[in-house]
Amino acid sequence: MIFSDHLLTFITFLPTAGALLLLLVGGRDEAANNLARYIALGVTLLTAALSLWLWYLFDPSNTGFQFVENYAWIGESIGYRMGVDGISVLFIPLTAVLMPAVILSSFGSITKRVKEYLIVFLVLETFMIGAFATLDLAMFYVFFEGTLIPMFLIIGIWGGARRIQATYKFFFYSFTGTVLMLIAIMAMYWQAGTLDIVKLLTFKFPPEVQTWLWIGFFASFAVKMPMWPFHRWLPEAHVEAPTGGSVILAAILLKLGGYGFIRFSISMFPDASHQFANFVFVLSIAAIIITSLVALVQTDIKKLIAYSSVAHMGFVTMGIFTGNIYGIHGAIFQMISHGIVSAALFFCVGVVYDRMHTREISAYGGLVTPMPRYAVVFMVFTMANVGLPGTSGFVGEFLTMLAAFQANTWVAFFAAFGVILSAAYALWLYRRVIFGAFTKESLKGILDLDRREAIVLVPLVLLTILFGFYPAPILDATAASVNLVAENFANAIGAAPAAVAAATGH
């Protein structure tokens, strides 16, 4: 009974318990490092299993929050509140399932300060899951801001040659945005008298107040996603971060921005969101087109994929601020899909980097000859990144463009042009790395995927194809909550009842 009533707490803090356990592991020899690795792997596997159990128990027909834990700390205003609905429930399994892959991928690549590396990642997992699971705005800020510290350490200690510059740029951009969000949170408390997210979702903020609150939250979420032109920190952070850091940065941390836009911006500040929708559309299209063009001229594989992430997040913000069910559905699906595909792409980069210690595209070519299994796996994720039908990347992009077409046909047109550009840079990268003559002497003797790498990548291949052909598990889990958000948004901005009924199917 205690376990079932506190399932979210167990999932959230089990990684931290594992981090504390790792503190008891003594020694710096290989035996101690291996013990630490297997403890961390076991903890993350257990957390992943619990998160999938959470998804299994979740009732998708219920529009309210489930698995709720509510313990007031300061009156009824601030407390320990946990719960999930269709907007948040999928991000917890996404986070928890990727973490064992991150730990496993580090077995061969991280050889210094191994225990500390694993501890930092386990603490980071708690902060990420907590941000998606909390129902208290003060706790959300703590979890959201708390992710900066582990990622600061991951890049700054285990990163590349320019890691210090990348670390401080990442921290400066992110911290500046969250300070503005903190001011907005305090203003919300003065207005509503509570930081309970469930109550705040039903509280009607005056339109003029919504504008300022929206700007405060936008500053933080736009940097976190990141939206153009607040993306300048991301490519450098990706290039300097170790493989695990890049995976979590792209797959999970960026999604906190999109989740925040749905949970807070359009749900709590609908008037302001409607007012700023065209502004967000312009930034989204700029992200899709400009960063795709920038990706075309990159010489570093990681930096190209980093710019690709900015472009794909443009589809997410475009879909969210249409405010209709197709856009919000598509945005959530795109975030889940991108979490899988971007993680896999960075894992693929890590595979060749561990062998050759370079990410320069010009250093490769003809890898299909010595690495046929790698070529197939990389092809699947490249096609998903392009949005090929039959892969998970297609579903989210299609839904967001369908929503954009309903809102503004020009937005949909430019977004479709961005899809063409994504095919250009993704296929260009694949051709340069995988095809061509296998003539470079430095590549002689390069080995194909080993068993550990296959264990990491093959499940991601299966998920990419499964959700491409059968997206129902994701769409069904989010349907009721997305319909409610879209209906509330339409009612709040004064849409006609008939339009509301048409948009939500009621």
TrEMBL record:
Write down the InterPro entries for this protein, in alphabetical order.
NADH_Q_OxRdtase_chainM/4, NADH_UbQ_OxRdtase, ND/Mrp_TM
Q: Could you tell me the superkingdom of the organism this chain comes from?
A: Bacteria
Q: Where in the cell is it found?
A: Endomembrane system; Membrane
Q: Which residues form the NADH:quinone oxidoreductase/Mrp antiporter transmembrane domain?
A: 136-420
Tell me a Gene Ontology molecular-function term this record carries: ubiquinone binding
Q: How does it sit in the membrane?
A: Multi-pass membrane protein
GO CC aspect terms? endomembrane system; membrane
Q: Does the keyword Transmembrane helix apply?
A: yes
Segments passing through the bilayer: 6-26, 38-58, 78-104, 116-133, 139-158, 170-192, 212-231, 243-264, 276-297, 304-326, 332-353, 374-395, 407-430, 454-472
Instruction: Mention one GO biological process in which this protein takes part, according to its record.
Output: ATP synthesis coupled electron transport
The record's keywords, sorted A to Z, are:
Membrane, Transmembrane, Transmembrane helix
Similarity comment text for this entry: Belongs to the complex I subunit 4 family.
For this entry, the protein name equals NADH-quinone oxidoreductase subunit M
Q: What is the protein's species of origin?
A: Devosia insulae DS-56
